[in-house]
TrEMBL record:
UniProt cross-references to PANTHER family, sorted A to Z: NAD(P)H-QUINONE OXIDOREDUCTASE CHAIN 4, CHLOROPLASTIC, NADH-UBIQUINONE OXIDOREDUCTASE CHAIN 4
Domain of life: Eukaryota
Transmembrane segments annotated in the record for this chain: 6-29, 50-67
Cellular component GO terms, alphabetical: chloroplast
Family annotation (InterPro entries): NADH_UbQ_OxRdtase
Name of the protein in question: Putative NADH:ubiquinone reductase (H(+)-translocating)
Source organism per UniProt: Rosa chinensis (China rose)
Keyword tags: Chloroplast, Membrane, Oxidoreductase, Plastid, Transmembrane, Transmembrane helix, Ubiquinone
Length: 88
């Protein structure tokens, strides 16, 4: 009974996911058509939003260009964990 329930929930998810994704893409490209509100409520990004975006993007780009810095922090711990499993 549990497998049937899990399969049913997964099937519902597989049906709802494309519906949600396609409606999101439609709203992104063509706008939100349910209300005819003017776009005066949307403002450009200010210095605060720009600072937050740069604070998030710089580490992501840095780790993408030079991932060895992050990997070098955990090499010893990973080797210790792996040695427990493979070198007994």
């Amino acid at each position: 009974m549990t497998k049937v329930l899990i399969t049913f929930v997964m099937a519902i998810g597989m049906i709802l996911t494309p519906i949600y994704s396609l409606s999101m893409l439609r709203q992104m490209f063509y706008g939100y058509k349910l209300f005819n509100a003017p776009n005066s409520y949307f403002f450009d990004s200010g210095p605060r939003e720009l600072f937050i975006s740069i604070s998030i993007l710089l580490p992501v780009i840095g780790i993408g260009i030079y991932p060895d810095f992050v990997f070098s922090l955990s090499v010893d711990k990973v080797e210790a964990i792996i040695s427990n499993f493979f070198y007994r």
